[in-house]
Specification:
Helix content: 40-55%
Low-confidence stretches: 1-22
Distance between the termini: 46 Å
Structural class: alpha/beta
Oligomer: single chain
Strand content: 15-25%
Order of helices and strands: HEHEHEHEEHEHEHEHHEEHEEHHEE
Largest sheet: 8 strands, mixed
Strand order of the largest sheet: 7-6-8-9-10-12-13-14
Number of helices: 12
C-alpha cells in the first residue's frame, strides 16, 4: 500500500512539475502562410495539434497569431518584420516565401518551417539534419518522378502534359524541372502555362485546352489556391486533371500521390514543442515529410471523361471514391 501511495505521489508531483513548467509562461507563436488552401490549412491544424499532444494548453501555455500573405510575397516580408518587432517566442513559417522572409527578418527568434520544397537551395538552412542555426523544420519535397510515372500508368495514351504555375515562386521551380525531366524520359512533353496571381489561373487553364492530353498541377500555391477554376475547365473539356497534394482530390482532381499535410504540420509542431520546452533549435534536425499515399476519385474521372483501370485502382489506391462520390476504401 505504501508503494502504491508513493507511486501516486510521484506521479502527482511529476504532473505538477510538468504543468508548472508549461504554465510558467504563455508562449506567443507567430504563424503565417503564403496563401490559404486545404493543404496549407491542414499544415496549420497539424502544427496546433502537435503542441496540444505535447501537453501545451492553448490559451494558457501558448497562443498563435495567424497571418496570411494572401498570395503576395511582399506581404511575407511585412509579416516577418512584424513578428520580429513583436518579439514572439517562435515563428512557424508555412511555405518557402514565408520561411525565407522569416530568416531574413529574424536572426535570434527560433523558426520552424514547413511545406517548404528545398530549404537548402533556397537559403533557409545550410543543411538538412542538425542545422546549427536557429532554424529547423520539415520539407515537403514530393516524389515527382514517381508521381509522373504513376499518372502515366493510369493514362498511358497521354503524351502532352500541361501544368500551370507561378515562375516567381522559387518553391515550385524545383518541381517543374523534375517534372519536365520525368515526362521527357517517358517520351512525353510538358507544356507550361504561367500565372502571377490566382486571378489568372482560369485563363491559363483555358489556354491549355486543345494543346494537352492531361494536366498535372504540382506544388504551386498560386494554382492550388484557385484549383476549382482548373477543375471547371477540365470538366467542361474532358481533360484529365492530376495533382500532387491529396487535398486536391476532394476538390476535383482524379488522383494525387502525395504527403498528408496535416502530418507535415504535426511533425513541425513536434519540433516547436521541443524548442518551447528548452531544446536548442540548432540541435533539432530538419527533415523530410514521409507517409505518401494515393487518393483516387472515380467520380472526378467520370466528370473528365476518363475510364481508369478499376482493378489496378482498387488495389493501388489508399483512399478511393466511387462514381457517386462515396468513399469505398480508406478513411
Amino acid at each position: 500500500m505504501k508503494k502504491v501511495t508513493l507511486a501516486l505521489t510521484l506521479l502527482v508531483l511529476t504532473g505538477l512539475i510538468f504543468t508548472s513548467n508549461l504554465s510558467a509562461k504563455t508562449f506567443r507563436i507567430g504563424e503565417f502562410q503564403i496563401v490559404s488552401h486545404p493543404a496549407l490549412d491542414n499544415d496549420s491544424r497539424g502544427f496546433r495539434a502537435a503542441l496540444i499532444d505535447a501537453g501545451f494548453v492553448e490559451g494558457k501555455d501558448f497562443v498563435i497569431e495567424r497571418q496570411n500573405a494572401q498570395g503576395d510575397q511582399a506581404n511575407c516580408a511585412i509579416i516577418a518584420r512584424k513578428f520580429e518587432g513583436d518579439k514572439v517566442d517562435l515563428i512557424h513559417a508555412i511555405s518557402t516565401p514565408c520561411a525565407q522572409a522569416s530568416v531574413k527578418a529574424s536572426k535570434k527568434i527560433p523558426i520552424v518551417f514547413s511545406s517548404v520544397t528545398d530549404p537548402v537551395a533556397t537559403g533557409i538552412v545550410p543543411r538538412m539534419g542538425k542545422t546549427g542555426t536557429h532554424v529547423t523544420g520539415v520539407s515537403d519535397r514530393w516524389p515527382i518522378t514517381l508521381q509522373c510515372q504513376m499518372y502515366q500508368d493510369l493514362l498511358p495514351h497521354a503524351k502532352r502534359w500541361g501544368t500551370i504555375y507561378n515562375p516567381g515562386d522559387v518553391n515550385v521551380t524545383f518541381h517543374i524541372k523534375e517534372m519536365k525531366e520525368a515526362i521527357e524520359k517517358m517520351g512525353g512533353k510538358l507544356i507550361e502555362a504561367h500565372v502571377s496571381t490566382s486571378a489568372e489561373v482560369m485563363q491559363a487553364a483555358q489556354s491549355l485546352v486543345g494543346r494537352v492530353d492531361a494536366i498535372h498541377i504540382t506544388s504551386d500555391n498560386t494554382s492550388v489556391s484557385a484549383f476549382e477554376s482548373i477543375v471547371k475547365v477540365c470538366n467542361e473539356n474532358d481533360i484529365p486533371l492530376f495533382a500532387g497534394d491529396r487535398d486536391s482530390v476532394p476538390r476535383g482532381a482524379i488522383a494525387a500521390y502525395g504527403p498528408d499535410y496535416f502530418l507535415v504540420g504535426y511533425t513541425a509542431g513536434k519540433k516547436a514543442a521541443q524548442i518551447l520546452k528548452g531544446q536548442d533549435p540548432s540541435e533539432i534536425p530538419a527533415g523530410l515529410a514521409s507517409d505518401y499515399s494515393l487518393w483516387v476519385s472515380l467520380k472526378n474521372a467520370k466528370a473528365q471523361g476518363v475510364k481508369l483501370p478499376r482493378t489496378l485502382i482498387k488495389k493501388a489506391a489508399d483512399k478511393l471514391w466511387d462514381e457517386d462520390g462515396k468513399v469505398i476504401k480508406g478513411e
